[in-house]
Specification:
The complex is a heterodimer.
Chain A: H1 2-28, E1 46-52, H2 59-67, E2 76-83, H3 89-99, E3 107-109, H4 116-123, E4 131-136, E5 140-141, H5 145-150, E6 158-167, H6 174-196, E7 208-211, H7 212-217, H8 228-238, E8 242-253, H9 259-286, H10 293-303, H11 308-325, H12 333-345, H13 349-360, H14 373-397
Parallel strand pairs in A: 1-2, 1-4, 2-3, 6-8
Antiparallel strand pairs in A: 4-7, 5-8, 6-7
Helix pairs in contact in A: 1-6, 1-11, 1-13, 2-3, 6-13, 8-9, 9-10, 9-14, 11-14
Chain B: H1 3-19, H2 22-31, H3 50-58, H4 63-72, E1 75-79, E2 85-89, H5 94-97, E3 106-107, E4 110-113, E5 117-118, E6 124-125, E7 129-131, E8 135-136, E9 142-148, E10 152-154, E11 159-166, E12 169-172, E13 177-184, E14 187-190, E15 195-206, E16 232-235, E17 239-241, E18 246-248, E19 250-253, E20 257-259, E21 264-266, E22 269-271, E23 275-277, E24 282-283, E25 287-289, E26 292-295, E27 300-301, E28 305-307, E29 310-313, E30 318-319, E31 326-336, E32 339-354
Parallel strand pairs in B: 2-4, 3-6, 4-7, 5-8, 6-9, 7-9, 8-10, 9-11, 10-12, 11-13, 12-14, 13-15, 14-15, 16-19, 17-20, 18-21, 19-22, 20-23, 21-24, 22-25, 23-26, 24-27, 25-28, 26-29, 27-30, 28-31, 29-31, 30-32, 31-32
Antiparallel strand pairs in B: 1-2, 15-32
The chains are: A alpha/beta, B mainly beta.
Chain lengths: ~425, ~350
């Protein structure tokens, strides 16, 4: 029991170190934004896929914004991927097709496997360009975003591109404000630090791009994955393709406004991510492929983030067990010192990261909400643990993965 | 004090201590003082001309005044909507300028010139200048920003703090310091020892225009296929392309990359360490170095060029083409005389036109 506890404590310390390393890098290190200056070029043709499943509340905002972007019209084709929608999504898309002839080619999918990856896979039949961008229907790209996301593809090593997601419904309630802080930490610090340190920026599957030849090389979209973005990140990495993160390529999104929707969302992410961990972690760490040593280590740690929640809960249980067993770990005084040090430094790592992100964003008032993040973390810990247990039981019972679409809250169309 | 009271006081005190850090959080939650989404620019794409276009709109209200002054040859003074002082010259001259230029050379008025405008030297223009004709600045001047409807020419040892846009040709004499954004719809010409940050024009000429090297840029048949779409060749170590070799495809190296003299790359190049292009190399796609990049004399690159640490460009290099404009970007750029860039040249920290020696 005590050795199990040691292992968990060791893993927590590694992730604590990682949080600090990333945060300090963002605050004081060399910042890499190599492609953001590319504003003049012979822009390649691009196809923009807009994934939509029952998106009548938001799809028109996305298409309106895409029709107004600053990219040569003759080189840009928008394909709304209408995946078996039962609401007015089809009608709205067809109205846009009529309004912007030649610029939108709809893909109305009426049957087939559920899920975004499956829909994108089917839509690839219509794609003829080397560069593909992907947006979810609730995203609202700005005028310069398409050029910014295409620019990294001038680097022949880049297979995928990821932009920054910025919540637009921040002020709705406590949950949206906490999600805003989490997104800020995740993108402003985590993703950019991984870009700076040449580690593994994660492809997020939206506000993102992929190179067609890279996608072909890795075998296309994996429609058995619940998180096609994580799956794509690792397959690109294993084949020697880089994912570039563009922190200044920001795009508004809508975050969940109710806790049940948030719990569903994070459970899907956790399941998909853990699925990717089981599939790729061993091969990534020890296999023969094109990833560098630092990518192997960081990639494995990134794959493990959703396992840390159940492990932390297990660690608490083990610590209780050890206490009632009367075992004195590491000769008492050492354990006490270690515990005190961790309590003083380790517990603050995630908060430090988010506070640093808010500072980098130039926001201040929202930092006051940091104590409430404990609530968000608690909900996430239990939801992710539930997802991990569900993944195991699904494997035993042979149950198939179930795709849950994230509910939208926008009231205007 | 009885035991129950002691415990109650202890619990209340600890409860208070636990509540203290949450008080600002509760206040912020209800006051929503910082609950707006982060500002994401939706309306424009960060174009270099954004500020000059904004300034053009800003002085739009002066159009009737300017028209009247041009007709009568008079001057006019007043205040714009934001209370900034302006000075309109129908027929610009050094004499007219004396109205707003102090003896020490300071001029803190927005200047609107209805025709060709020549400024005296050793002047400090701390507000924007708009010129309908050609603009010629004296030596040792300092400007905040200039918008010229025709050619704009700066005298030696002048500096610009914010931006310049010229509809015609923009040229800067020796030792000018261009700290902001400089753009032209026609061409930019910088003389020796000029420093710059961001330049954009269909043609950017650095240093003397008389330096012409034979270009390894034969009539390259346009395959119609973007270099983005070509096959990738990935090398885990250092790699060299031999002199005169012709290579079709995109080369990616994890180590250093050296392209020897006269080689032709029909594709793009990427190295994760230093990259050297020797004399007369042709690259039809992009060139990206995660470290330093040296571009040798007479090289010709058609696509975007990025060096993450530093970029040295030797004499007679051509970057981009008149038909396919490109971006050249690096924190530090040292370009020798005779370099021509078609598109954007962005030095994030420091750029300089060096001697050809």
């Amino acid at each position: 029991m005590i050795y199990g506890l040691y292992i968990i404590v060791g893993l927590i310390c590694i992730y604590t170190f990682r949080h600090y390393w990333f945060t300090l890098n963002r605050l004081f290190g060399f910042q890499r934004h190599p492609y953001i200056d590319i504003d003049t070029a012979d822009w390649p043709p691009v196809t923009i896929l807009v994934a939509a499943h029952n998106e009548e509340k938001v799809i028109s905002n996305a298409l309106d914004a895409l029709m107004a972007v600053n990219y040569p019209h003759e080189k840009m084709l928008v394909i709304p991927v209408n995946d078996r929608s039962k609401d007015r999504t089809r009608e709205i898309i067809d109205d846009f097709v009529e309004k912007f002839p030649g610029r939108i080619r709809p893909f109305h999918r009426v049957s087939g496997k559920a899920g975004k990856a499956a829909a994108l896979k089917d839509a690839m039949e219509l794609v003829e360009t080397e560069v593909i961008l992907i947006f979810d229907a609730d995203y609202i790209p700005g005028a310069g975003l398409v050029k910014q996301l295409v620019a990294p593809f001038f680097d022949p090593e880049v297979g995928g591109v990821m932009g920054r997601v910025v919540p637009m419904n921040v002020g709705a309630n406590l949950l949206t404000r906490l999600l805003d802080l989490e997104r800020s930490g995740g993108y402003q610090v985590d993703q950019q630090a991984r870009m700076n340190l040449r580690l593994v920026p994660q492809h997020g599957g939206t506000v993102a791009g992929v190179r067609m030849s890279a996608l072909h090389e890795i075998g296309g979209w994996n429609d058995t994955s619940l998180t096609e973005d994580t799956d794509l990140t690792y397959r690109l990495l294993l084949h020697g393709w880089k994912t570039a993160y563009q922190n200044r390529s920001e795009c508004y999104e809508e975050v969940p406004e109710t806790w049940p929707v948030r719990i569903k969302q994070i459970m899907r992410w956790a399941k998909g991510h853990n699925q990717a961990m089981l599939t790729y972690s061993f091969h990534l760490l020890f296999g023969r492929h094109r990833a560098t040593l630092r990518e192997r280590i960081d990639g494995t740690l990134l794959l493990g983030v959703y396992v840390m929640a159940p492990l932390t809960l297990l660690g608490w249980l083990l610590a209780l067990g050890v206490f009632y067993q009367g075992v004195v770990p590491l000769h008492g005084i050492v354990a006490l010192l270690a515990f005190t040090s961790y309590a003083a430094v380790g517990n603050l790592a995630a908060f430090f990261e988010i506070a640093a992100a808010a500072r980098l964003d130039g926001t201040f008032g929202r930092i006051c909400l940091l104590p409430f993040l404990i609530l968000g973390f608690a909900v996430s810990t239990f939801s992710v643990t539930r997802a991990a247990i569900s993944l195991v039981t699904d494997a035993i019972t042979g149950a198939e993965f179930h795709w849950d679409k994230t509910e939208r809250f926008r009231t205007t169309t | 004090m009885n035991a129950y009271l002691s415990v109650s006081v202890l619990i209340a005190f600890n409860g208070l201590l636990l509540t203290i850090p949450v008080i600002p959080a509760i206040v912020e939650l209800y006051r929503k003082s910082d609950a707006q989404p982060l500002l994401v620019i939706q309306k424009h794409g960060g174009e270099i001309r954004h500020f000059s276009e904004g300034f053009r709109k800003y002085i739009d209200e002066l159009k009737p005044t300017l028209k009247e002054c041009r007709r009568s040859g008079a001057t006019a003074r007043g205040r714009l909507k934001d209370n900034a002082e302006y000075f309109v010259m129908g027929k610009p001259s050094a004499t007219s300028l004396r109205e707003v230029r102090k003896h020490d050379g300071d001029c803190s008025t927005v200047i609107v010139a209805g025709g060709d405008f020549e400024t005296p030297g050793i002047s400090n223009f701390s507000k924007e200048i708009y010129v309908q004709g050609n603009f010629q600045g004296g030596n040792f001047n300092h400007y905040r920003a200039i918008l010229g409807e025709k050619d704009v020419e700066l005298g030696a040892y002048s500096s610009v703090a914010r931006w310049i846009h010229a509809v015609g040709v923009f040229s800067a004499s020796y030792h000018c310091a261009l700290s902001g954004r400089v753009s032209s719809d026609s061409a930019i010409k910088l003389k020796r020892k000029c420093t710059f940050l961001r330049l954009n024009a269909p043609r950017i000429q650095l240093g003397a225009s008389s330096i012409e090297l034979p270009q390894n840029d034969p009539a390259v048949p346009d395959s119609g296929k973007s270099s983005v779409a070509l096959k990738r060749y990935l090398y885990d170590q250092d790699f060299e392309v031999q002199a005169g070799q012709i290579f079709h495809g995109n080369i990616v190296t994890r180590g250093k990359l050296r392209v020897h003299q006269g080689a032709r790359i029909f594709g793009s190049l990427k190295s994760n360490k230093q990259m050297v292009l020797e004399k007369g190399v042709l690259v039809t796609g992009s060139v990206i170095s995660a470290s330093q990049l040296y571009i040798g004399p007479g090289c010709c690159i058609h696509g975007p060029i990025i060096a993450e640490h530093a970029l040295h460009i030797d004499i007679g290099v051509r970057l981009g083409t008149p038909a396919k404009l490109a971006t050249v970007s690096s924190p530090k750029i040292l370009a020798k005389e005779g370099v021509v860039v078609f598109g954007s040249l962005w030095a994030r920290e420091y750029g300089e036109v060096a001697d050809k020696a």
